[in-house]
Amino acid sequence: MQAVLLKHVVQANAFVAHVVVAVMSVLGALACTLGLVACSGHVSAEPDRAGAESPADASRSSDSPRYPVEIHMPDVLRGIRTGTVDSLQRPLLAPCGSCHASGAYALRERNDPPVQGPHAGLSFRHGELRCGACHDARRAEALHLADGRTLPLVEAMTLCGQCHGTQMRDYRHGSHGGMSGYWDLSRGPRVRNHCIDCHDPHAPAYPRYQPAPPPPDPRRRPRG
Amino acid sequence: MTDRKKRRTLKILGATLGAGAFARAIAPLSALSETTSMEELLQQHYQELTPKDLQRVLRRLEAETKRDYGVDVTIEDVPPLEGVQFAYALNLSICIGCRKCAEACHEENNHDRGTGNSYIRVLEMDQGSMDMERGRTDYDHTVPAEGKFYMPVQCQQCENAPCVTVCPVEATWQEKDGIVVVDYNWCIGCRYCEAACPYHARRFNWNKPDVPAEEMNPNQAYLGNRVRPQGVVEKCTFCLHRTRKGRLPACLEACPTGARVFGNVLDPDSEIRWVLENKRVFVLKEELGTRPRFYYFFDE
Questions:
Q1: Do B258 and A171 touch (CB under 8 A)?
Q2: Are B176 and B27 within one domain?
């Protein structure tokens, strides 16, 4: 019951070049979803409000302009880090095509020796999946969906969602993945994390780590 | 000794004793004036302040913060938004117990650095159990630990709040957006509310909070995160200095897994509404009839 709306998307300006903006559009109470499209150099217009319902008890936000919900765009979807930075101290990325120019490239198989070269150190712990499950063997900057359609790397979330449907559903409704900014989109924008900000696509289990120190517990504290 | 002489002696004795007793009785007042201005002593309850008086109070508090902490801060009166009822939900299936929320609360709300205070405790409990009494808050190992789950607990902003009922001076009340607030300048520090809260959500300022100038969050609210005086009770305000301006609470932004969902329940398109309508949410200690507006849920 979810109509996926691919909305305008945005190449962010020079200062936020790593961020692609997707616009969250709300159509009625149930059909609220979002989508990503490759950047095309224009900034998204005001979100489409046609069809947005304004019931009498309307929320405050439904009769005022809505700010966009951006999805953070990890730079690994744009190329590979070269280890150097540009004049703005951003990591300098080399597009996939700078090595994989010829198009087709070899995908690793299970018993192949560890990857060398620029991709050295990649770990592969994503269930039983092999490279070819997601990567398109013909174009290095492309993925492919289960039905064979190719998908640009920057749209990787669509690919994640085809297996992790419940997580994608929760993400679309703001109950997975985290966010920052404004709960009230009539007052300001919101930024969402990308799947791969938290889950390394090659080893997606969320890492364990040491928690922050505990605050005092009033149940156990005689006097401070 | 004549009667007249006796009477005069008694009078003098009585007057001397009376004067001494009076001086003794008002002695605390002179000590008080070293830390408390007369203006502060005579300040009205927040809800009875005229807009003009309120502004005067805010400027005075800013000046006091500058004097005591050496920081220029802005203390605002941030009223509830029209048509907004806040609610919070927390997904226990994806909380990993990292305490990032508690840490963010500590910094955002200008908590005392010495005690590491926070409005959030994170309980570590055995999977399959829900025994909060045995929930540990002092765990210090890599998280999430095998066989454990984590439950952050903060003020539940109850509709029927025991802490509000017990306050003898009405220094705490629920605002119309659902947030339970404290007038820190009206609180007498009796700690009845702390005892009444079934969620251990209130904190008492035993000491004057120690916050280094460079760590002070200068965006403050009178009913929110301004530095609380010593000897009063404080509590989570859903970061009203942020949320009443449309922003997300600090604990939510700090959550690395997205376990926290916040919003306006009156907005049918809000994330919080979706969670309340589609997840099997529950509240803590429902049987007490406190009617919290903080919900928990597990993924199916």
A1: yes
A2: no
| pLDDT bracket for residue B33 (50, 70, 90) | low
Residue to test with chain B: of A57, A184, A187, A206, most B Cβ within 10 A: A184
Q: How many domains does chain B have?
A: 2
Residue-range definition of the domain harbouring residue B28: 1-35
Q: Is residue B73 part of a domain?
A: no
Please give the tally of structural domains in chain A.
1
Contact B82 A177 (CB under 8 A): no
In this prediction, residue A221 carries a pLDDT of 55
| Each residue's pLDDT tens digit, A187-223 | 999 999 999 999 999 999 998 999 999 999 888 754 4
Task: Tell me, yes or no, whether A189 lies in a domain.
Answer: yes
Do B97 and B205 fall within a single domain?
Answer: yes
- Residue A208, exposed/middle/buried by CB under 10 A (0-12, 13-18, 19+)? middle
Residue A152 lies in a domain: no
Mean pLDDT value across chain A: 73
CATH of the domain at B98: 3.30.70.20
Which positions in chain B touch A29 (Cβ < 8 Å)?
Answer: 268-269
Q: Is the pLDDT of residue A6 over 90?
A: no
Tell me whether residue B54 is in a domain.
no
| % helix, strand, coil for chain A, step of 5 | 20, 20, 60
In the numeric block, the tokens 């597990």 are attached to B298
User: Is residue B110 one of the residues assigned to a domain?
Assistant: yes
Residue A218 lies in a domain: no
Instruction: Provide the number of CB pairs (under 8 Å) joining chain A to chain B.
Output: 158
pLDDT-based confidence at residue B1 (cuts at 50, 70, 90): low
Q: What is the pLDDT of residue A64?
A: 67
User: Is A192 within a domain?
Assistant: yes
Cis peptide leading into residue B144 (ω within 30°): yes
Q: For strand B233-235 and strand A190-192, is the pairing parallel, antiparallel, or unpaired? A: unpaired
B27 plus B166 within the same structural domain: no
Give, in order, the Cα–Cα distances in Å from B200 to each of A105, B158, B191, B284.
60, 13, 12, 12
Pairwise CA distance, residues A63 & B194, whole Å: 41
Asked whether residue B126 falls in the same domain as residue B10, the answer is no
Q: Do the Cβ atoms of B261 and A175 come within 8 Å?
A: yes
The residue-averaged pLDDT of A71-89 equals 87
CA A6 to chain centre: 14
Same-domain check for residues B28 and B154? no
Which CA distances in Å does B12 have to B8, B25, B111? 6, 20, 54
- For residue A61, the distance in angstroms to the closest alpha carbon of chain B comes to 8
Q: Containing domain of residue A16, as a range?
A: 9-74+171-198
pLDDT tens-digit series, residues A108-153: 777 778 888 888 888 888 988 888 899 888 888 889 999 999 999 9
What does pTM read for this prediction? 0.80
CA of B115: which chain A residue's CA is closest?
Answer: A216
User: What local confidence, expressed as pLDDT, does residue A13 receive?
Assistant: 38
Asked if A166's CB is within 8 angstroms of B247's CB, the reply is no
Contact check, Cβ <8 Å, A219/B200: yes
